[in-house]
Structures are given as structure tokens and as C-alpha cells.
Design goal:
By secondary structure, this protein is an alpha+beta fold. The chain is about 50% helix and about 25% strand. It is built from 3 helices and 4 strands; from the N terminus they run αβαββαβ. The protein has a 4-stranded antiparallel beta sheet.
Length: about 130
């Protein structure tokens, strides 16, 4: 009787270990796939299809540097075709370097104005070719 119980425990333990290893490998495969997709997206977004331009504009409605300014900077940096985005809370300005084939000054301002349900207002947009 003890041998049967011991055999069942060993069998169930073996099945459990083998089953977990298979799931782990599947999860690792998914992570690699997601990483590969992200790498491809980044490579695609970094390819310059047009002319690099710089947009500078004022942002009204920011109340803090760590929350508002960093959030806006992050949203702008995440856009396809944006090489660099900097938001200066004290000066209430944003400077964005972007590919004009993928973004425009207007699309950048619309992105900022949509953040936080329209809490921010963009003024004095200036775009120049680099």
C-alpha cells in the first residue's frame, strides 16, 4: 500500500514538473516574440522617411514638473517619428525633433491637448527644418 501511494506521489510530482517546464518555455517564447516585435517597431520608427524638423511651443496648464511635464514628454517621445522631446516646466515650453513624414506640428499639438482630457493648451507653435 505504501509503495502504491509513493508511486502515485512520484508520478504526479513528475507530471507537475514536466508540465511547468513546458509552460515556462512557452512564456519565454512569448516574451522573445514581443521583444522582437518591439525591436522591429523601434527600428521602423527610427528610420527617417522625410526631413527632420524641430517644433517649439508653449504649454499652458502644467502644474508640476514630475507629473505634467514628464507625462507630456513621455507621450511625445512615444510617437512614431519623434526622435527627441523635451518639456521644460519652468519655461512652459516643449521642443520636439521629429520626422516630418511621420508627424507634423499640428499632430504634436493635438497629442498634447488630448492628454488629461484637454487640460493642456498649446500656443505659439514654431516649426523649422533642421
Amino acid at each position: 500500500m505504501k509503495i502504491v501511494k509513493l508511486g502515485l506521489v512520484a508520478l504526479l510530482g513528475g507530471i507537475f514538473l514536466v508540465g511547468c517546464k513546458s509552460e515556462t518555455k512557452k512564456e519565454e517564447g512569448k516574451v522573445e516574440t514581443v521583444a522582437q516585435v518591439k525591436a522591429a517597431e523601434v527600428a521602423e520608427s527610427n528610420e527617417v522617411a522625410g526631413t527632420m524638423e524641430q517644433a517649439t511651443f508653449q504649454i499652458e496648464g502644467m502644474t508640476c514638473a514630475l507629473g505634467c511635464a514628464k507625462m507630456i514628454e513621455g507621450k511625445l517621445t512615444g510617437l512614431t517619428g519623434v526622435k527627441e522631446a523635451k518639456v521644460d516646466f519652468d519655461a512652459k515650453t516643449a521642443t520636439v525633433i521629429f520626422d516630418d513624414a511621420k508627424q507634423s506640428g499640428e499632430s504634436l499639438t493635438q497629442t498634447v491637448q488630448k492628454i488629461a482630457n484637454g487640460s493642456y493648451k498649446v500656443e505659439n507653435l514654431e516649426v523649422k527644418t533642421l
